[in-house]
Design brief:
- This protein is an alpha/beta fold.
- The protein has 16 helices and 16 strands.
- The longest helix is centred in the last third of the chain and has 17 residues, at about 385-400.
- The chain binds zinc ion.
């Protein structure tokens, strides 16, 4: 199987970086863009010249998978070592010095164990790979990389039939105002409490039936407890679901994944297991029940159902408002090596260019392909209220001036859902409970 043209372009980009004296470029390509074959090709060319490769991953589960890909691609595995970062960093003294270090999921690479490996082999060239060259706190990768080699984006992959197009729904609202942040993301215990409410289960099942009935789905949960409860709720409703997590014995996990592959299970419930690189069979739907502040996690989880198949249209059902924090999965993003914290993050949030139809719950870009703002929902035809329309005209005028983006929420009246009110409140720095009262007043929550 030859590389695709855009994959070859990425490899040329890496070579160019080395030629220009860079030591540690990072490849940026969306989920589903074929990052593993690109690094396999780079590893193959390196081993063909008799040079050693060290490939570091952050999850044990990925080693076997990558070994198979590399072997199948023709990498000389006698010269290539694949290992988990913790293991490798403990065994540095046993390793023969590599001439190339490849770092998978490069956005993790700030941790001490990665640095220890890099520092042990200072003369090795490095290359990293990720879909999202940004850390949870919003900072870039300038401390470990000296160049970003940015490939095509998700929209391009969809337009060129390398990823399936998708419909994005955000039907129900959970109240996250009281959930604390811990280590940069929503606290899992706090989110679990919100997600374990009976009404939420009802909503999840009802909307799965309404929007994706009978389609195979991966369901992302906040905790193992929550995932098990979701499994039970689906099964009680007559929908065949199974839970897996990192502690599920390998044989059992393989068995369950095989059942899913053969279509004998409809829903696969998990926490974060099926996110980074974890090879699961194709499915058509992702159910997001895990609120996150991590762009990386959001993109990995929502795009997991977008593997291309002719005629396929993926369905993403977001019950936790991740879209309101990050925009749609294929929203164009400007990556920088050196991201300024906070301010940039905040600004990016302001640039969100999406709308949630209050009638059919579809989430879509604010403007059509010609940059004209929708006055009605492109899916169900729902006419947005008049008042808003006049503001739309104004926004259009501003749009032409400032090239490219408008603020989605100029006033709480612009918000069509509780999620949007929550996002609005967060942006404005309003107190807790403000969004709740606004939503209550507008009949958006019961
Ligand atoms: Zn609609």
């Amino acid at each position: 199987m030859p590389l695709r043209e855009y994959q070859n372009d990425v490899i040329s980009g890496v070579k160019k970086a080395y030629r220009e004296g860079k030591r540690s470029p990072c490849i940026v390509l969306p989920c589903g863009g074929g990052k593993s074959v690109i690094v396999a090709e780079i590893a193959k060319r390196t081993t063909m010249k008799g040079n050693r490769v060290l490939f570091i991953v952050h999850r044990k589960e990925l080693c076997d998978q990558i070994f198979k890909t590399f072997k199948g691609w023709g990498v000389d595995m006698k010269l290539c070592k694949i290992g988990m970062v913790q293991t490798v960093s403990r065994q540095i003294h046993k390793l023969k010095p590599p001439s190339l270090i490849i770092t998978d999921e490069n956005h993790h690479s700030k941790a001490a164990s990665y640095k220890k490996i890099y520092e042990a082999f200072p003369s090795a060239r490095r290359v990293g790979v990720t879909a999202t060259p940004v850390r949870l706190d919003g900072s870039g990768l300038a401390d470990v990389n000296d160049e970003l080699v940015i490939g095509v984006d998700a929209k391009w992959l969809i337009d060129h039939h390398y990823l399936a197009p998708y419909d994005y729904y955000a039907p129900s609202m959970v109240d996250l105002t009281d959930v604390k942040t811990s280590r940069g993301d929503y606290d899992s215990k706090g989110s679990e409490k919100v997600m374990l409410k009976k009404a939420v289960f009802g909503d999840v099942i009802e909307n799965y039936r309404r929007l994706a009935d009978g389609k195979q789905a991966i369901c992302y949960c906040t905790t193992i407890n929550h995932s098990l409860a979701m499994e039970q709720a689906f099964n009680a409703a007559g929908i065949d679901a199974r839970h897996i997590d990192g502690s599920t014995p390998k044989a059992e996990r393989d068995r369950i994944i095989n059942l899913f592959r053969n279509g004998q299970i409809d829903i696969l419930c998990n926490v974060d297991l099926i996110s980074e690189g974890f090879d699961v069979p194709d499915c058509e739907c992702a159910i997001l029940l895990r609120p996150t502040k991590s762009l990386t996690l959001y993109i990995q989880q929502s795009m997991r159902c977008m593997r291309y198949k002719p005629g396929k249209r993926a369905i993403i059902i977001d019950h936790v408002g991740n879209y309101a924090r990050f925009g749609l999965p294929d929203e164009p993003r400007k990556w920088k090596l050196d991201t300024k914290k906070k301010k940039t993050q905040k600004k990016e949030q302001d640039d969100l260019n999406i709308k949630n139809c209050p009638e059919c719950f579809m989430v879509f870009p604010l403007t059509d392909e010609n940059g004209i703002r929708y006055s009605s929902c492109p899916f169900c035809g729902y006419e947005f209220p008049k008042k808003e329309k006049s503001e739309i005209e104004q926004a259009k005028a501003t749009l032409e001036k400032i090239e490219g983006f408008v603020l989605e929420y100029d006033s709480p009246d612009d918000c069509n859902s509780y999620q949007e009110l929550l996002a609005y409140a967060e942006r404005k720095g309003y107190k807790k409970g403000w969004a709740w009262h606004q939503a209550k007043m507008r009949g958006m929550i019961r």
